[in-house]
Specification:
This protein is of the alpha/beta class and 406 residues long. The chain has 17 helices and 14 strands. The strands form 3 sheets. It has a 5-stranded mixed beta sheet, with helices on both faces. Helix 2 runs parallel beside helix 16. It binds iron/sulfur cluster.
């Protein structure tokens, strides 16, 4: 049997509405893999017996495998994972925090990263040589990271070298949400990696070493960080990687000459959905509300909010708010739903009430987790993520430069 290539017939009357509406205070129910409308574009090479298993059976299997494997396995759950995955996570957090956590658990030979591809790569870069990193669904990528292909970044770098005569004064900075090959590119070119919590510090470091920063893949994090540092918008130029080489990424020569930050035209499909109109609607509905958003949101949304920061920052912001607080949040729905449940004394809501989960994070269905764990019990490693040694070496250099800033 091959995986379904057309949308399976669904009974919409009995279909769990939470999966369609993604309301803040309801979880996203797990349906069998074969009923997932997008299963045909997920990793098909999962044995058929997992396709029809219900959430309860999958949970029992994962639990049993965990018990057998003990500390030989560490399961990591990114904040944006669904509850049916998060319940098995030894640690939950953002990508860098999780990669570091796993590297500090040498007793765990296997790192099962419930997140997306670049996160598992980061864990593999930091892992000890005996640790093997596993991504439950190999099709769990990140649309933002995919917007910066290695060849496109190299082509843009070559064009910048030609335009300026040299790249000595340009410091490449890649957001954590990028392929290992781009972290390696930064390591090899006097550049650095940043996260959404240290982007300001990283840019300061970069400006001590060069006139300009070449920032990828998220234009919004780059722009919001530059803006917070007082860099005017006209000194931040957008590089459209979709244009053929020879077009300076759509920028004029004058704009490039006055630029301090060259922003890759990438974005997060989840965070770019938030709008100023949603912030205004939230304030109209709850005049006392505080609004906190992720810096992957557009600059006007960040400007309209009361606060902005990484997922870790948002979690703390809500934890530290006094009981009775009303907080509108601009980030992925799984995290907002969890925070709403964990803080019943506060009103926590998503700025976009019908926002759907990150579709690639969602691909880590419990069936995939059950499969990779049961394979480990059977002594087989499937879905291993292995960063080539040369990339690992250079990417580590870029990550160590970032770590030295703390
Ligand atoms: S939320 Fe955005 S940046 Fe994060 S994995 Fe999904 S698409 Fe990528």
């Amino acid at each position: 049997m091959t995986p379904p290539t057309t949308v399976p017939a669904l009974d919409y009357k009995s279909f769990p509405m939470a999966q369609l509406q993604c309301e803040t205070d309801t979880g996203i129910e797990t349906v069998p893999l074969a009923l997932e409308v997008a299963f045909s574009s997920w990793q098909p090479s999962i044995p058929e017996r997992y396709w029809t298993m219900e959430a309860t059976e999958l949970a029992e299997r994962i639990r049993a495998a965990r018990a057998t494997l003990g500390k030989r396995v560490v399961v990591l759950g990114h904040h944006y994972q669904r509850e049916d995955i998060i319940q098995f996570a030894d640690e939950r957090g953002d990508s860098f925090q999780l990669a570091q956590y796993a590297s500090q658990r040498p007793e765990s030979d296997y790192i099962v990263f419930c997140g997306v591809h670049f996160m598992a790569e980061a864990a593999d870069i930091l892992a000890a040589p005996h640790q093997q990193t596993i991504l439950p669904n190999m099709e769990a990528g990140c649309s933002m990271a995919d917007m910066a292909a290695e060849a496109d970044v190299h082509a843009a770098w070559a064009e910048l070298r030609e335009a300026f005569g040299s790249t000595d004064d340009i410091i490449p900075v890649t957001y954590m949400n990028s392929a290992a090959s781009l972290k390696a590119f930064c390591g090899a070119n006097n550049g650095v990696v940043c996260t959404s919590s240290n982007a300001g510090k990283v840019l300061e470091w970069a400006f001590q070493r060069g006139k300009r920063v070449f920032f990828f893949p998220d234009q919004h994090l780059g722009r919001n960080t530059g803006h917070a540092m007082g860099i005017p918008l006209e000194q931040m130029v957008l590089w459209n990687w979709r244009l053929p080489a020879g077009n300076l990424g759509g920028a004029t020569r004058e704009a490039l000459d006055r630029s301090r930050i060259i922003l890759w035209q990438g974005h997060c499909s989840v965070h770019q959905r938030f709008t100023v109109a949603q912030v205004e609607q939230a304030r109209a509905r709850y005049p006392e509300a505080k609004i906190v958003v992720h810096p992957e949101c557009r600059a006007d949304v960040v400007e309209a909010a009361d606060a902005n920061g990484s997922t870790g920052y948002i979690v703390k912001y809500i934890e530290q708010a006094p009981a009775g607080s009303v907080i509108g949040v601009g980030t992925e729905i799984n995290l907002v739903s969890r925070l709403a449940k964990e803080h019943p004394d506060k009103t926590i809501f998503c700025l976009d009430p019908v926002v759907c989960p990150c579709s690639t994070m969602y691909r880590v269905h419990p069936a995939y987790l059950a499969w990779v764990m049961e394979e480990l019990v059977a002594g087989r490693v499937v879905n291993r993520i292995q960063v080539p040694e040369a990339h690992k070496r250079d990417a580590k250099v870029a990550l160590e430069r970032m770590l030295a800033l703390k």
